[in-house]
Hints:
Layout (H helix, E strand, L loop, with lengths): L6 E3 L1 H14 L4 H16 L10 H10 L9 E5 L3 E5 L5 H19 L1 E9 L6 H4 L7 E7 L6 E2 L6 E3 L4 E5 L7 E5 L6 H10 L8 E3 L4 E2 L8 E3 L4 H19 L24 E9 L6 H16 L15 H13 L1 E3 L1 H14 L5
Parallel strand pairs: 3-4
Antiparallel strand pairs: 1-14, 2-3, 4-13, 5-8, 5-13, 6-7, 8-9, 10-11, 10-12
Helix pairs in contact: 1-2
InterPro entries: Mal/L-sulf/L-lact_DH-like_ah, Mal/L-sulf/L-lact_DH-like_NADP, Mal/L-sulfo/L-lacto_DH-like_sf, Malate/L-lactate_DH-like
Pfam family, one: Ldh_2
Enzyme class: oxidoreductase
Amino acid sequence: MPVLSDTSVTFDRLKAFIEQALTAVGLPDADAATVAALMAEADLQGSDGHGVSRLPQYVRRIKAGGFNVRPNIHVVHEHAGTAVLNGDNGMGHLVMKRAAGMAIEKARSTGIGWVNSQFSNHAGPASLYATMPLAHDMIGLYFAVGNANHLPAWGGLDMLLSTNPIAAAIPAGDENPIVLDMATTVAAYGKVKTKALRGETMPEGWMIDREGKPLTDPKRADEGMLLPLGGMEAGYKGYGLAMIIGLLAGTLGGAAMGRDVIDFNHDDDSVTNTGQAVAAINIAAFGDIAVFKRSVDALVRDFRNSRRMPGVDRIWVPGERSHETRLRRTSLGIPIAPALLRGLDQVADDLGIARL
């Protein structure tokens, strides 16, 4: 049987398709456009597990009442440099774009702005929001409680933690910004779902079963657990980091954490009360912006030009691979796997819109 190849689509076409689908299920035009742009941006930068691949799930949840398509996103606590934003169970992309904007505005006057969310939802890759302050000569930070628990306490079996991602974005001068976006597990669960969509196996070290044996079939992911950063040898470090991020992104803002987290992969209608936090740090509050950027440039070049071990062709700085992926996909198109395309075609047919 011949192996089917990916279909390539432009960013604009992908964004328009997502926007049409979200409008068809009841999102206001402006909100659909905002979410579609962020979802398509995720695919453009290579975050395939958090872009259009989530559309069938989002549509399913909206139809089941799991998302509020016309939320009243509002502030419940606010001080000069901080706020807690209630997302009213709206789509997480809308909530977090609002939160990032608030953090940036607060950082203009206070130096640092920090905004937590409660009653939000899955919002795509963390880097989407950590990078928003960059345009304002600010550093961005982002923390989130994942939307399903796949990680036990170190040495345990009860799933009490998620992939709980962290992202940071640091502006540079002539160099590209430094952008770190990572889960606190060896692999994000979105990557597991992408492997399943593509019919691929997972590398050993991503997941183990409940007896501690390697699990490589992504379609059996529910039978196992993700390994925390550090793997079998030093996973207590990743477990600790996941817990701290969950406390900062969830508990601090009155959002779900631990046993209260709803698995939105298997529950389409419950309110998830997803918690996230975004911070903006105004570089001007700490010194000269141009001097800081030149220092970042120099550091990046030192890393890139440092001596390499045998067999290493290049030393990468966080964010460079995503930048290259964005350039390549802008030129050649965004690849859509055959299984994903079939799912998107079904969404289009069900909603009465043109196929991708």
